[in-house]
């Protein structure tokens, strides 16, 4: 714990040094401690969600991500009941749901979209029922929509740790992940254990979702796991660049969103996702190669010449 | 043991034990999907260092046989050995390269030609305790040289930095072939490498396959291209759920009774035209 505290203090100090370079009007909110914690959490969440979103987009796991994020709700509720850290309950619930989806797919004739739909709505319903019994509606709102301004030191540390695990795992396993994501059959032919990679990736996804709960909330976390990667996918044709851009867009969305949430006193999760969506819209319209306007411009010019 | 190993099946005749020198040896293999056998009673021996064509009608179970040899699928009955070892063990050492049909892949995937070919170096990278974890540019010279050789052999080197969506059908085939080459495996299994390629690409692909054989590597390809097979292959395996016949192309493709037994009029016509 002492090391964790030291790491957090160092990161916060570094962050403050950067923030202080900004004009005073912009930097002013970050003189509050809770805003400093919120900023650090937002950066970590944006970075990890952005990086992971590339694999969610390329593996077509958008629905699966949505499912896991909803399915952590009963875990949060039960952890609250038993007095565990919500982190553990959420992680267990998410992982169990992912396994349950795989089980239904393998043992019945149902396809994955139906299996996912059944598991996550059932788990979410269980969560809603438990929470409606035990918690206040403000509490439920915070779990569902996030409350980044209320992040305490323990949660900050857990978020940083989860994010670090995810980033290290992705960078060390990059080559295996590339082979698995592009051509799963060939990856098996190369002697890779694709079952292990599959569940490791799902576990990372669950970890990231749980780490993002306080910041963006259960309902909207999947947006941060889809939009930054999609935006980056419209702008580049190389996976390393896509990962880098998606991380950048993730951080931009969470940090700008935090700022907007503070200034206009709106839900932080919603503000962050709106920024992410605005960035996507920008890439969709103006992306040099795949963007709509440049494409129309090229077609118009082509028509004009011929 | 239904149909193979008759008196008119040179190569497969008389062999019952598993041949440990052979690149592939299969005995009494039954396998399929959802309880229906796609291949039934396969006996097959492929000696090391040969260029072997697997020929048969659509739905004959040729791709299933490749998946079985690869160890991607387990036989319900029977046994398959590669160089005297179980397929999974051979696969882990990177001794078997596989080229899938290109339609199954997502060519919008954010990767360059070189990235795709490089992925085949993973089995040999894994043997190094440090390099397996490093990013692509830092893994060491010999791996990049192997990739360069494969790109040159398939004449795709000048497109190495292009995005994979910018390629024609024949070029996509060559990229997947380059990926199989870059693995430097003893045994290469190629699923329809000649479908949808133009004449130049086809000549180039056969050239690459002959070079592989000259280097002592074993190549098994599934194909419909009978005239190419007649010209270049050492051995033809006529296949329809099991091995119907196995032998030198000239002998086999001249035998009309065998052609009829492949039970595919279109293929039989193709075979006749080639003879």
Describe the structure.
The complex is a heterodimer of chains A (306) and B (275). By secondary structure, chain A is an all-alpha fold. Chain A has helices at residues 2-19, 24-27, 33-58, 62-82, 86-107, 112-134, 137-145, 153-172, 174-182, 184-189, 194-216, 218-224, 227-233, 239-264, 268-286, 292-305. Chain A has one domain (32-305): ABC transporter involved in vitamin B12 uptake, BtuC. Chain A contains 16 helices and no strands. Chain A is globular and about 55 Å long. Chain A starts with a helix and ends with a helix. The relative contact order of chain B is 0.18. Chain B has 275 residues and is an alpha/beta fold. Helix content of chain B is 35%, strand content 22%. In chain B, the strands form two sheets. A six-stranded mixed β-sheet of chain B has the order 6-7-8-3-9-10, sandwiched between helices. In chain B, strands 2-1-4-5 form a four-stranded antiparallel β-sheet. Chain B is built from eleven helices and ten strands. The interface between A and B is medium-sized, with 25 and 33 residues.
């Amino acid at each position: 714990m002492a090391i964790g505290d030291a790491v957090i203090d160092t990161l916060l100090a570094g962050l403050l040094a950067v923030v202080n370079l900004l004009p005073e009007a912009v930097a002013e909110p970050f003189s509050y401690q809770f805003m400093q914690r919120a900023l650090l959490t937002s950066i970590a969440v944006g970075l990890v969600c952005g990086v992971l979103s590339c694999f969610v987009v390329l593996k077509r796991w958008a629905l699966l991500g949505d499912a896991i994020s909803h399915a952590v709700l009963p875990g949060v509720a039960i952890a609250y009941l038993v007095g565990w850290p919500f982190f553990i309950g959420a992680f267990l619930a998410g992982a169990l749901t992912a396994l349950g989806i795989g089980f239904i797919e393998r043992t019945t004739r149902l396809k994955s979209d139906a299996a996912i739909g059944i598991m996550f709505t059932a788990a979410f319903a269980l969560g809603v029922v438990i929470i409606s019994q035990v918690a206040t509606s403000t509490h439920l709102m915070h779990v569902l929509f996030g409350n980044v301004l209320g992040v305490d030191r323990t949660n900050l540390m857990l978020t940083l740790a989860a994010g670090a695990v995810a980033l290290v795992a992705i960078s060390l396993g990059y080559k295996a992940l590339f082979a698995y994501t592009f051509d799963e059959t060939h990856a098996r032919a190369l002697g890779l254990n694709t079952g292990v990679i599959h569940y490791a990736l799902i576990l990372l996804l669950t970890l990231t979702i749980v780490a993002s709960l306080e910041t963006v909330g259960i309902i909207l976390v999947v947006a941060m796991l889809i939009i930054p990667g999609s935006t980056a996918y419209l702008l580049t044709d190389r996976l390393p660049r896509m990962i880098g851009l998606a991380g950048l867009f993730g951080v931009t969305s969470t940090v700008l969103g935090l700022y907007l949430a503070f200034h206009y006193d709106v839900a932080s999760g919603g503000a962050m996702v709106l920024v992410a969506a605005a960035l996507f819209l920008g890439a969709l319209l103006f992306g040099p190669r795949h963007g709509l306007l440049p494409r129309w411009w090229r077609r118009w010019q082509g028509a004009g010449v011929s | 043991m239904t149909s193979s190993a008759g008196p008119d099946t040179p190569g497969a005749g008389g062999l019952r034990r598993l041949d440990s020198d052979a690149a592939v040896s299969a005995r009494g293999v039954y396998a399929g999907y959802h309880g229906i056998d796609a291949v039934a009673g396969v006996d097959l021996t492929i000696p090391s260092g040969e260029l072997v064509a697997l020929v048969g009608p659509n739905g004959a179970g040729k791709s299933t046989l490749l998946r079985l040899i690869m160890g991607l699928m387990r036989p319900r009955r029977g046994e398959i050995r590669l160089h005297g070892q179980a397929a999974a063990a051979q696969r882990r050492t990177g001794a078997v390269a596989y080229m899938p049909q290109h339609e199954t892949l997502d060519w919008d995937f954010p990767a360059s030609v070189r990235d795709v070919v490089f992925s085949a170096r993973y089995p040999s990278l894994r043997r190094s305790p440090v390099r397996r974890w490093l990013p692509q540019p830092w893994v060491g010279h010999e791996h990049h040289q192997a990739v360069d050789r494969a790109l040159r052999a398939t004449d795709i080197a000048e497109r190495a930095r292009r995005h994979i969506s910018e390629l024609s059908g024949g070029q996509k085939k060559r990229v997947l072939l380059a990926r199989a080459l870059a693995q430097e495996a003893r045994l290469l299994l190629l699923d329809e490498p000649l479908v949808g390629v133009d004449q130049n690409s086809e000549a180039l692909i056969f050239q690459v396959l002959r070079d592989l054989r000259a280097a002592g590597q074993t190549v098994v390809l599934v194909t419909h291209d009978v005239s190419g097979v007649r010209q270049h292959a050492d051995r033809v395996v006529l296949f329809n759920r099991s091995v119907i016949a196995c032998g030198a192309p000239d002998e086999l493709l001249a035998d009309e009774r065998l052609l009829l037994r492949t039970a595919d009029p279109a293929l039989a016509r193709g075979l006749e035209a080639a003879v």
